[in-house]
Every structure is written in structure tokens, then in C-alpha cells.
């Protein structure tokens, strides 16, 4: 493909070459407004998420400029803003806590490489087979886990966070050390953040029935309210920082502060393939061993989150998941040369971007420029950012990720999915989000196995018409191992309608749902399998068919009607002289003659 | 149920109460012959398998009398002989090597308890969802792993066995220490065993065209040949033991011998809930922690093996898997009070039993009596059994478990199953049978996911007849998350027949297989979903339907025909005003009027 149509491939890899042609001033204005608005959310968030990942705040800022630049070139979804995200920061903490920043950067690099492999090979699309209830349960549990890990920041405590359960257990061990001033500040910050969010979402000046001047003023007021709401993170952090600065006296301070942030842009160098902690030196292999399952789990969740965001904003347009995965990979790899932590699309910032009227992925360029500006000139002032303010930013951002509405919907329209949702949710809370996600996928697989264990057979008893009385079944699609036992038990039940030796519950259920009239005992029984829409069977199913046919051959016949050649071959592989026919043969006295022919092949 | 019909429950639990009524002298003779024949196989095998499990030989004998007694009371399958089995002995070694015999006995007890729980709760039936290729790949790999672990016994070497790969690696480390006499004995034993097996299977005096006397003589010769073949293990071990005894001089011996076996019956006492190794004391909890995943894997494989044997000999009769699992559990629990290692049905002994003309599970009583006799009177002579002879018994027994024929069958009739088979086989060899089995189940799940990701939709374009031109689909059964993306991409392709932005390979494939004529552009498009045989959708699928309908609503309509109430409810949960109709409505000008009505509900 690369050799065949290089131009098309390059255009596919860099959508900017396409949308750039139609980039107007209007688009640019939309993008600038969105880019600046995003930056106001991103800058405080990035530092907070770095803290969540157990890294110094500057790593969050390092992650916030190269990734948006790269995404502007390669991304397909205007709304996506690449940068630190709550979920991936939590996972970074899970896999790297107790180590140093090099591990976090290296994880980002490796995740990027994995994304690229997944994107090129197409393996990445497998994440689309994770069902919505699993994703929802996982996201809600992750939000609660993140919020729980931030309680220490809110109250000025110090303990090791972990899973939801572990965080709260550790919390109750040190709760008596709660710092008053930090708690007061947190309450203030959270209240302000939630109020501003409510204002943005619910309070609007009514613009109907006003004259032109009133109308214009109302529109301006509405825009102002919206902007205040959107920039609430920046506002709250700024106010808290100024407050902390004002009450700061002789190195004594009532709040826990962020402390010194390395000023300036990061040094450009390859990601660390070697690092030292104390006197121990870790090679790249050692680091990979330490990261362990994170090398698979982190990229998988990154892809899952990004594809989900792109889909949410696609509005019915075709999603190019492969290109998105590649873009995510390149963002992470290039960013890791700038000492960045893991980057990913963020759902909350994408929503802000969308509401700000973003037009193209180019808005990332303006966001990135603002972050560079911040790193160059503002870092000295970040010393005074209270940790409680950053924790408040995280808590208020993630709590909206908890989706309890879906419970009501599932109860109404699809209750079995509640098993998956709640199973995923609680295993995430108890065992950690990464293990919980795997549990969720297993629950999905088990449910699928269950559904597949009840294949559609459409058993009927036909005793009218010109044909002798016979049973018919009409299997559809593919028949696989999961359904083999079910099919056999149902069809054997037709032969032995009364099961004397203590039938199990399952058989009773099968018999009652089958709703088949009792066949005449002692007469020859026919089973016509209509194979018109049967496409394949697997070996396990064929084995059960073999046993079934042996069973039926004692008192009856199994006849295969309209089987395709592939199905005929499969059946010939396990049966001696299977009886094939077409619908036309059935119309003649085929069934009766088969009886006298024994098991000879009657293929027409 | 226990309260409702106690008599029926007891009859179900103890099938002996049923078959005892019709137990004739003829049945008894069949059972005695089978019981004695089995004992001749079982006694040498049980000691060999105990060695395979890393236990002293007497534990194999301890496992060989209580279990057949119990199975005679509770079993449903005459052919099954309970006792040590190669597979479970290998697993016992995997989970308990480096400990003492108490761990092996405790594992048997816990496995029995797990069997009982699995049997009563019905969870045990889940093993029936393991496909034939997985079982086959697992069994073949286990046989090779066991045979590899016995090479040290054959050659008189000493190294730590483990997975197939590890055994051979360790073997090549000590191969230069091979003992000549042990090797010679092994070659002799193996040659004899394989020759006798071949005689039993292939050499027969032709009995046709003979007079009565000749005929009788021929029958007697045939029976004698068969008996020599069946008792080959006992013969070979006896001859080897006598040889070892004769060449034994002044404690010097050319062969490695079994050594002292504790004589007499085992002490009857509860299974060990505490044990000491060196100075360390292990509580029951410590022992369970050490056994780890074995507490699940061992009983699961036990159930799997037993159910497979019962099915193989059921000959079309209904299999009472639940009762078999319960019987297996009781056998293990009671046996563990007699210091027994894990017991299970053995495929090879069941085949012998079948060929010996067994009539009822009662034959186990005769086998058990012979084992008791052996323990009481023969153990002193077992000192001289050469280890090479026991290793030869194992190797020749397990090599016939390797099933290479299935590869040819799968190649002919179901190639995708080869992925599962070979995947399971090689992961068992490399990572150990217990991990490999789990890999196999995962491969099964992934294949099932793949099949489910291509649900049967039956997309058609109808432009003849009285109705306006429309697409119709006819989904069947249940629609689940795995197929959601496929359905959406196929149906979205109908709206946008030409995909300009670099379609992925998968889409191209989908388009080419769909075989749908190009629709007229710019006209309103109708999609009629025939729901007659649609039973349920899960939430993920409904979400994709929601997006799909929004997509279609721009240029067309989606109409739900003949939906059941449950389906209607599900659709109403995600769609605003879905359009329902019946076949009759379709016959009228329903489709056209819907267009003018917009998205209002037109339910009749």
C-alpha cells in the first residue's frame, strides 16, 4: 500500500494537508477562541494530573504542548485535546509509584510505541469489542478511585493512595491529622467550582422578546457567564494562589503549597532508557519488567478512551479509528522526547472545546503556544499554588464522570447488562481499575458464551401436508462449541420425550421452553435440518452432531436439506453416509424412501 | 428439592439402589473379570503415577481402593475406574513439588470439596463449554509433558521436571550421567509393553471357516492374547522386579529401585489441616495459599476429564454430568481420609474396563478388594520394583493420549479450529499445562467474539412489488455488543455507498461481501427491520442503533416491523418516536406516509 499510493497514504496520515486548503479566517477565529479556552482548563488540570500520577507538576505542563501540536497535524477530530488525562494519570500512578519520573516518561514512550503497533496492525480496533456497560462501570469506578485518592490533597493529609478501598482504609488511619486551613480552602474551591459549573450549565438570560439592544446585551451576558464557567479551573487556582501568596510569611504558610517548579521549557532528549533510584541502576529491560502488565493495559485503555471520545463527537460521520490510534501513538512518542508524561484525549476538555466552537484540530496549536508561554514566564508564580486547590480541580473534574443515569436506563431496557456494569464497577473499586477492567471483559465473555449456548434452532413438528410427519430445524448463521450441548440435549429430548432418571433443572427448562408436541412413540422419527442459512459449524459442534445422528439412527433418520458444499464436506467428515436432499426431493416421497435405503447417500 | 422428594433424591445420588435390583450372576461375572483386569493395570500404574506426582508409591495404592468402592455406590458409568490418573498426578506435582505428602492429600480433599460445590451449584457444567480442540490440544500436550518428565526415570537420571520445555532443558544438563543398566531395562520394558499392546490390538486368530473344535480353540487363543495384552503393565513390572531381585547383591544393584514401601493399609484419619516441613509449620490457610490457583484449576480439569470419559462411553444415553461431579467429589473427600492422593477417572483404564465386558459400576468393588489385598500382603516385594519399569509404564500409557489424527480431520472439515488446537498445544508445552489450558479457553473466547462480531443480518434491497424501494434486514436471535460495530458499519455503508476518506481493509471487505446494489443517491431511503425473530438486544447494540437511526434520519427512515413488546420497549428506551408497524401496514402505503409524518409513532 505504501508503495502503491504514497500520496494517498500521506494525505491519510496528515489530515491537515486536506483541511488546511479550506481553512478560513472564520475557522481560525473559532480555533483561537477554543484553543485559549482549553488552555485555561488545561494548565491547572495538567499540573493537578501530574500530581495525581505522582510526578512533579512541571511534567504535566511538559505533556501539554507537543502533543497538541502533533495532534493538529495528524488528528481527525477537532474536539480532541491531547494532554494529561485523569484516567491515564491514575494508571501511571498505579504502575510507577515508588519510582521516579523517568519511569513515567518511559511508560509514555512505550505506550506510544504500542499504540503505533496496534494502529498499524489493526489490533487496536479490538477495543471496540469492549461493551458499553464495561466502559461505563470502569469509568465510574475510576472516577471514584481518583476522587478518593485526592481526599488527602483536600484535607492536607499524607498517605499512600491506591484502589478505592485501600485509599479509604489508609485515610481513616490518618484522619485525625486533618489540616484545618487546607480543608477550608478545599471547601471554598470545590463550592466555587461547582457553582460556576452550575451557572454555565443552567443560568442564562432569556433572549426572547427583547429589543435589539437588550438582546445584544443579553447575549454578551450569556457569553460572559459561559466563559466564567469554562475558565473556572484557572480562576479558582489563580484566586487560591494569590490568597496563599498574601498570607505567606517568613516561609511559614497555613496551606500546603506546590513548591518549586523547574522553570522554562524541558530539555529535548531521548526518553530515559536507563535510570537510577538511590544506588540501584535500572536498565530499559528492568524498567519494562517493573511496568509489567501496564505495558498492555495502559495503551489499551488509552486507545479505548480516545476512540470513545472521537465516536462521541463524530455525530454519525465515519470514524477513522486506525488514524486516531496512530495519532495517539505519535503524540506519545514525540512528547516523550520532551520529558512528557502519558498523553491522551480528555473527555472534559473535549466537551469544552466543542462548546467553544472549535473548527479544526488546529486549535491545538494555539493551546500549545499558550502552554509554552506559561512554561517560559509563569512557573515562578506556581510555587504558591495550594495543593488543596489542585486536588479540588481534580475532584470536581472527575466526579462528573460518574454515570449513575445509565443504571436507570439499563433497568428499563436491558437488565442483563446490569450484571456486567455492576460487576465491572465493584471489581474496579476493590481490586483496582486495571484488574477490574479485565474482570469486566471476562464477564462480557461469559455472558456472550451464555447467549451462544442457546443458538436459534426453530424446532418444529410438521404433521400436515404431503410429507410424512417429521421434525424440522432451521439453524442460522454459524454454530459453535458453546451451543453444541444445548442443541444435542434439545434434539435428544425429541427422541426420549420422558426422561425418567432425575432430570436436572436445566433439562426441565429446556423441555418446557421447547413447546414441542409429544411425538408418537415407537414410530420412525425424521429430523429434517434445513441448512439454507447455515454457514459453518466448528469441530465441537460437529462432534455433537455425530453423536446425535448415531442416536437418531436407531429409531429414525436425520436428513440434511439444501446444504452448501462446505457444510456437506464438514458433515461427510464426521458422518458415515449422511443423507442430503433439496427442497424438491423433500416434496417427493424422499423421506419414506430414505427409510428403506438405510443410511445410503441420496444426493441429487 | 431435598424436602420435596427425598426418596427420588437418594435414588439419584446412589444409582446402585437402582441397578442392584437387576444384578444377575452374569453381571457379576462380567464385573469380576473387569475388576480383576483393571486391578492388574491399576496397581502398577498407581505406584507410577504417585511417583509422577512426586509422592511415595504407597500413596498411589492408598488412592486405589476407597475411590472405586465409593464410585460403585454413586457412579453412573460402569466403565469408569477411579484412581490416580496421569493428568491429575502431573498437576499435583506442579502445585505441590518441594513440599510433602500432606500437601498432596490436602489438595485431594480440597478438590473434592470444590467438586461437591461445583456439582450442587451446577457451576461444574461450565466445563462443557470448553471446546473439543482445546481439550485435545491440552491432552496431547499434557501427555508429552508427562512423558518428558519420565525420561529421567527411564535413564536413571535425576533432575527437576516441569513444563515440556523445562524438562528437556534440564535433561540436557545431566544427560552425560545416563545410567546404562536402567536405560537397557527401560528399552526392554517399553519394547515389551508396545509389542504386547500391538498384539492385543492387531493380532487375532481368524475364527471364520473353522469347525467347532478349531473355532473354540481359536477363541481361547484370542482371549489369551487379549488378556496378555491387557495385563502387560503387571507382567512387565513383575518380570522387571524379579530380574532386579535376582541381580540384587549386598545392597548393590545395577538398577535404581523403588525402595521401602510402608506396608499395610493406611491409617484412617482426617486429611492434614496442618503440616511441617523442616522447622516451618503450615496451617490450612498457608497450605491453601501455597496451592493457589491449583484450587480451581485441579478440580476443573478433574471434572473436565471425568465428564469427557463418561460422555465417550455413554453411547448416546443421557449423561448425568451433575451426578458424576458429585460422585467424583465424594470419592476424593472420603479417599482423603485414607491418605489418598487425588483420584479421578482414567481414560486408559476405562477403555480396558469396557473391553473386559464390565456391566455395572460395581466392578470397582472387586478392583478395590484386590488393591487392599496388595497393600496387606505384597508391599514388601515392591521394594525391588525398578524405577525404570514404572517410568516405562507411564510413558507407554500416556503416549497413546497424543492425538495427531485430529489434525488431519480438522484440516479437512474445520480449519479455524486448528488455531485453537495448536495454540492450546504449544502454550501448554511452553508455559505448563495449567496456564496453557487457560490460554486455550481465551483463544476459544476470542474466536467466539469474532464469530459474534459478524451477526446474521440478511440485508436486501427491494425495488419490486407494491412497496416503495427499500432496504430490509432480518436479524435473528439475539444481537450483542460484539456485533454492534459490524451492523453499524454495514448499514451506514448503505447511506454512504462511496467512502472517500481512505477506507480501511475491513470496510472494503464488508462492502464487497455485502453485495448490495448501489442505491439511488439523494432519494429518501427506507430501512425496514423485520423483527419477527429478534429476541433481545444488549445495551451496546442499542447504543449503536441509536447512532444509526440518527444517521438514517437525515435522508431516510428506519421502520421496525413486527417487533415484540420487549423489543419495542428496548427501542423506545433509546430512540425518540421509533416507527413500528406490522406486515399488514407494510402492505399499505405505510412507508410513504411515515415520510410525511416525520418521526411520529405509527403503531397500529
Helix-residue proportion of chain A: 55-70%
Structural class of chain A: alpha/beta
Number of helices of chain A: 27
Q: What is the mean pLDDT of chain A?
A: 83
Radius of gyration of chain A: 32 Å
Pfam families (chains A, B): Sulfate_transp (PF00916)
Protein name (chains A, B): SLC26A/SulP transporter domain-containing protein
Membrane topology (chains A, B): Multi-pass membrane protein
Subcellular location (chains A, B): Membrane
Summarize the structure.
The first copy, chain A, is α/β, with parallel strands linked by helices and 604 residues long. Chain A has helices at 6-13, 16-19, 25-52, 57-62, 66-74, 86-96, 101-121, 132-155, 164-174, 180-202, 212-230, 232-247, 284-291, 294-314, 321-336, 347-355, 363-377, 387-399, 405-413, 416-431, 433-452, 481-495, 505-514, 539-555, 565-574, 583-587, 590-597, and strands at 82-83, 274-277, 280-283, 344-345, 460-462, 470-473, 477-479, 525-530, 534-537, 556-561, 579-581.
Offer a few descriptive terms.
2 domains, 27 helices, 604 residues, alpha/beta, 5-stranded mixed sheet, two-stranded antiparallel sheet, disordered C terminus, 62% helix, homodimer, 7% strand, Transcription Regulator spoIIAA
Amino acid at each position: 500500500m505504501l508503495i502503491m499510493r504514497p500520496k494517498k497514504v500521506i494525505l491519510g496520515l496528515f489530515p491537515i494537508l486536506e483541511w488546511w486548503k479550506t481553512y478560513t479566517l472564520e475557522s481560525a477565529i473559532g480555533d483561537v477562541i477554543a484553543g485559549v479556552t482549553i488552555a485555561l482548563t488545561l494548565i491547572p488540570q495538567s499540573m493537578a494530573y501530574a500530581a495525581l500520577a505522582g510526578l512533579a507538576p512541571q511534567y504535566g505542563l511538559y505533556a501539554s504542548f507537543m502533543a497538541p501540536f502533533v495532534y493538529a497535524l495528524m488528528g481527525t477530530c477537532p474536539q480532541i485535546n491531547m494532554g494529561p488525562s485523569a484516567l491515564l494519570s491514575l494508571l501511571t500512578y498505579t504502575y510507577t509509584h515508588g519510582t521516579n519520573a523517568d519511569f513515567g516518561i518511559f511508560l509514555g514512550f512505550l505506550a506510544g510505541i504500542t499504540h503505533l503497533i496496534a494502529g498499524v496492525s489493526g489490533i487496536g480496533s479490538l477495543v471496540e469489542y469492549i461493551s458499553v456497560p464495561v466502559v461505563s462501570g470502569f469509568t465510574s469506578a475510576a472516577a471514584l478511585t481518583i476522587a478518593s485518592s485526592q481526599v488527602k490533597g483536600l484535607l492536607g493529609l499524607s498517605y499512600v493512595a491506591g484502589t478505592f478501598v485501600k485509599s479509604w482504609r489508609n485515610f481513616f488511619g490518618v484522619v485525625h491529622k486533618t489540616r484545618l486551613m487546607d480543608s477550608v480552602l478545599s471547601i471554598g474551591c470545590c463550592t466555587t467550582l461547582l457553582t460556576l459549573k452550575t451557572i454555565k450549565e443552567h443560568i442564562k438570560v432569556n433572549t426572547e422578546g427583547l429589543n435589539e439592544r437588550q438582546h445584544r446585551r443579553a447575549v454578551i451576558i450569556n457569553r460572559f457567564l459561559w466563559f466564567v464557567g469554562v475558565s473556572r479551573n484557572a480562576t479558582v487556582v489563580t484566586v487560591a494562589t494569590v490568597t496563599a501568596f498574601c498570607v505567606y510569611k517568613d516561609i511559614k504558610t497555613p496551606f500546603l503549597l506546590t513548591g518549586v517548579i523547574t522553570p522554562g521549557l524541558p530539555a529535548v532528549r531521548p526518553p530515559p532508557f536507563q535510570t537510577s533510584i538511590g544506588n540501584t541502576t535500572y536498565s530499559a529491560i528492568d524498567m519494562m519488567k517493573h511496568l509489567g502488565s501496564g505495558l498492555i493495559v495502559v495503551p489499551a485503555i488509552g486507545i479505548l478512551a480516545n476512540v470513545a471520545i472521537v465516536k462521541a463527537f463524530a455525530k454519525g460521520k465515519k470514524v477513522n479509528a486506525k488514524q486516531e490510534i496512530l495519532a495517539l501513538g505519535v503524540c506519545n512518542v514525540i512528547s516523550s522526547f520532551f520529558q512528557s508524561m502519558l498523553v491522551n484525549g480528555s473527555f472534559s476538555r473535549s466537551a469544552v472545546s466543542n462548546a467553544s466552537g472549535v473548527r479544526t484540530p488546529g486549535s491545538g496549536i494555539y493551546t500549545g503556544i499558550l502552554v509554552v508561554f506559561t512554561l517560559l514566564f509563569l512557573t515562578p508564580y506556581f510555587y504558591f499554588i495550594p495543593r488543596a486547590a489542585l486536588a479540588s480541580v481534580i475532584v470536581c473534574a472527575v466526579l462528573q464522570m460518574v454515570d449513575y443515569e445509565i443504571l436507570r436506563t439499563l433497568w428499563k431496557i436491558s437488565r442483563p447488562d446490569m450484571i456486567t456494569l455492576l460487576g465491572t464497577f465493584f471489581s474496579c473499586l476493590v481490586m483496582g481499575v486495571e484488574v477490574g477492567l479485565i474482570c469486566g471483559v471476562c464477564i462480557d465473555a461469559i455472558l456472550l458464551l451464555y447467549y451462544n449456548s442457546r443458538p436459534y434452532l426453530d424446532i418444529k413438528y410438521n404433521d400436515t401436508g404431503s410429507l410424512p410427519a417429521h421434525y424440522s430445524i432451521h439453524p442460522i448463521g454459524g454454530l459453535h462449541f458453546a451451543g453444541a450441548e444445548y442443541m444435542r440435549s434439545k434434539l435428544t429430548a425429541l427422541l426420549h420425550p420422558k426422561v425418567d432418571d432425575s432430570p436436572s433443572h436445566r433439562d426441565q427448562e429446556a423441555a418446557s421452553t421447547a413447546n414441542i408436541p409429544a411425538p408418537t412413540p415407537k414410530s420412525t422419527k425424521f429430523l429434517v435440518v434445513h441448512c439454507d442459512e447455515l454457514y459453518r459449524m466448528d469441530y465441537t459442534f460437529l462432534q455433537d452432531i455425530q453423536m446425535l445422528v448415531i442416536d437418531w439412527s436407531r429409531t429414525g433418520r436425520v436428513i440434511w436439506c439444501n446444504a452448501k458444499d462446505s457444510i456437506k464436506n464438514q458433515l461427510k467428515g464426521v458422518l458415515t453416509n449422511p443423507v442430503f436432499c433439496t427442497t424438491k426431493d423433500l416434496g417427493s416421497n424422499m423421506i419414506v424412501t430414505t427409510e428403506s435405503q438405510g443410511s445410503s447417500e441420496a444426493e441429487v
